Amino acid sequence: MDIAQAKRRENIAEYILYLWQVEDLLRALQFSPEAIYSQLIAPRTELCEEQKPVYLMWYLDLAGLLRQEGKEEKGHLEHTLHLIQDLHDLHLQLLKLPAGEHYRKTFARLEGELPRLRAVMGNPGMSDTELCFRALYAVMLYRIKGQGDRPAVADTIDLVSPVIAELAAMHGKVERGEVDLFKDNA
């Protein structure tokens, strides 16, 4: 909960990937309140006893949303998918507007690889932005499984990470009112 809130304020991309990881953890724990408490809350020594029920409720609320949306086995919460759509809308704006000059150069290095990445990831109908998030999440899972040394993993990180990092940074600046998309903010 505190980690998610901090990530949401600081970096929208990390927030989305963190929530996806929490979704998978909740599934792995079979949405069991006892397992969630013993695995995700009890080990956190920095939490006082009064905070622990609040954290448990946050995890159980996410579990409830997954169930409500029919995503007990797979899939991601609509909340994160809407955030990705917002980022994709920003991506499309940055491809056209003056404030996106640097972003366009960063994205150009990835653009030629998108068809290959799309073929590997499947689902040809998803946006480029969602594709990038799914690729980054797949890399994260490979690393967790100890398979992060594959060349495809390094290639994905090298190509996708700079684009998502710049998109997330620009999102934060726009959200805080630090950037006007219609002006060259260089």
How would you describe this structure to a colleague?
The chain has 186 residues and is mainly alpha-helical. The chain has 2 domains: 2-68, no CATH class; 78-175, no CATH class. 70% of the residues lie in helices and 0% in strands. Helix 6 runs antiparallel to helix 9 (151-175). The model has no long low-confidence stretch (mean pLDDT 91).
The fraction of residues in strands falls at under 5%
Report the total helices.
Answer: 9
Query: Low-confidence parts lasting 5 or more residues at pLDDT below 50?
Result: none
The biggest beta sheet reads: none
Total beta strand runs: 0
Percent helix, as a range, is over 70%
What is the total domain count?
Answer: 2
How far apart the termini lie comes to 35 Å
- The chain-level structural class is mainly alpha
Shape: globular
Quaternary state, please?
single chain
Radius of gyration: 18 Å
Average the pLDDT over all residues and give the rounded result: 91
Order of helices and strands: HHHHHHHHH
Name its key features:
9 helices; 70% helix
What does this entry show, briefly?
This protein has helices at about 1-10, 10-30, 35-40, 50-70, 80-95, 100-110, 115-120, 130-145, 150-175. The mean pLDDT is about 90.
Topology readout:
Blueprint: H1 2-10, H2 12-28, H3 33-41, H4 51-68, H5 78-94, H6 101-111, H7 114-121, H8 128-144, H9 151-175
